[in-house]
Amino acid sequence: MCEAIGHSVMALHRSKLGNIDVKKLKIGTWRYLTKEEVNTLLNNKKAFTI
What pLDDT shows up at residue 47? Predict the structure, then answer.
């Protein structure tokens, strides 16, 4: 995504969003959110504020 707009990526930091932790995911993988994670994100507007 960054290369598409002319920016190179030197390093990435895996973090979390709200209660969703991604540290255990292997590089290049993804997973579906659980129903509980979706509900928490939808009910907690603060999870989306920067």
Answer: 53
